[in-house]
Amino acid sequence: MKKVSFAEFGGPDVLHLIDTDEPHAGPGRIRVAVRAAGVNPVDWRVREGQFQETRPIELPSGLGLDAAGVVDEVGEGVEGVEVGDRVFGEGASTYAEFAVLSAWARMPEGLTFEEAAGYPSVMETALRVIGETGVRPGQTLLVSGASGGVGSAVLQIARDRGITVIGTAGAGNQDYLRGLGALATTYGAGWVERVRRLGHVDAALDLAGSGVIRELVELTGDPRKVVSIADLGAPEFGVRFSGVAGSVPDALAETVRLLSLGRLHIPVEKAYPLAEAAAAHIDSQAGHTRGRRVLIV
After folding, report:
1. What percent of the chain has pLDDT over 90?
2. pLDDT grade, residue 57 (50/70/90)?
3. Does the N-terminal peptide bond of residue 273 adopt cis geometry, omega within 30 degrees of 0?
4. Which pLDDT band holds residue 54 (cuts at 50, 70, 90)?
5. Any idea what the Cα angle at residue 32 is, between residues 31 and 36, rounded to 5°?
6. For residue 283, what are the β-bridge partners?
């Protein structure tokens, strides 16, 4: 089968499409014929070796956590899913023609493989970090870097829970944030004062890693009310860096619930052929994303 792999840490050029043996579903797992794979910032951070001290991997390695596809193997002990079912979920080395998933859910009717592939990690992360801030209904959450996949999910989850969101993004994404129910403003010079004019901030999320941790602490008044998924230096300010996943099955269930109610939609900004994984990483690292990026298999 075809699979994206890398044998050394580095830039996008270390990614190669190779021929390799197919994986198989062990106990408690399923295998899917992948139709689309989600591209997340964690993927290029792994490719660069950013997590080697905390979560080392052996090289050569595949990439990708999220996938949507058709079940073609069901492991021992797995119930409630059959060969031929359309599912989306999380596993390992999903930038491939076949991938083994450890958590999955049936795709809701009307959802395309491309759309479904972008939800699992994004929704797990969004639900996790909202919980870690301790923000409650009726309070206001500031989201720095709000237009990407996780930000888009945070805005819609918060709206469903009665939490007000102030979101920062580029000038071209202001209407997009407002369409998701956020109070929007741009980043750049004077952004802190622009946020203050929009209202009091009870908690804050750093989703972009753009060096704003100090300002987020200033706006909330308490580093314990700030969570980052993008700035490895956040703990220097007493801020939690959230990098350990919570319950993916719970996140998938909430995804299906919100989708079925029409309360969740994260657009796919661009879909790339599997062979163009490097281009997808280049675009993901450049930022300014509206929604998600996915690979088509």
Report:
1. 92
2. very high
3. no
4. confident
5. 145
6. none
